[in-house]
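Ticket #4471: structure output looks truncated?

Reporter: J.K.
Steps to reproduce: submitted the chain below (201 residues) through the standard prediction queue, then opened the result file.
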Amino acid sequence: MPVMLTRIYEDNPSEKALRGVVNELENDNCIVYPTDSVYAVGCSARSAKALDKLRRMKDKEFFTLVFSDISQIAEYCRVDNATFKILKRNLPGAVTFILPASSRVPHKAVGRRKTIGVRIPDNAIARGIVEMLGEPLISTSLFDEGLEVEYNTDPSLIEERVGRDVAVVVDGGMGGVEPSTVVEIAGGEVEILREGKHELL
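Returned output as attached by the reporter:
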């Protein structure tokens, strides 16, 4: 099946276009989509078949769950009051929080780990996809330091690069080059693991 390059405008995402993207996710496919940092690739958290595709595409041990709101995060992670306040101050935003995973997180997404990365991008397209899907995305960055910037930021060149592995590349405009900030919260301690686009509040 040929990949679809679908233009969606962040300031007014088309419900029809979002539905087309979500249909592909519901059919066990992977998609490329914009975030508030770099372009990402993801699949539905309920699709083991799509997660296998994602693992073949991006050989990683660690993936991130992308949500549309904070209440969803509490369903998949253990969130105490102090952690909730930190999340509320910083999300939506270009920050990935590493939190203790609950049993709802698919085992294939965490492997031997007991934690999972969580994100709520400050991007209406990404949040709209997740909201319409009704399930978080299992996701990872598409940014590759070894490639020319254009192949990381231009949706048409991203399609050229990874189109055989995904059903849809969502063209949300030129992507960024600065990754999300990564913050781990464990046992009441907050540790910045990677400085990125977001300044922790």
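Triage note (M.O.): checked the attachment and the full token line is present. The mean pLDDT is 92.
Status: closed, working as intended.
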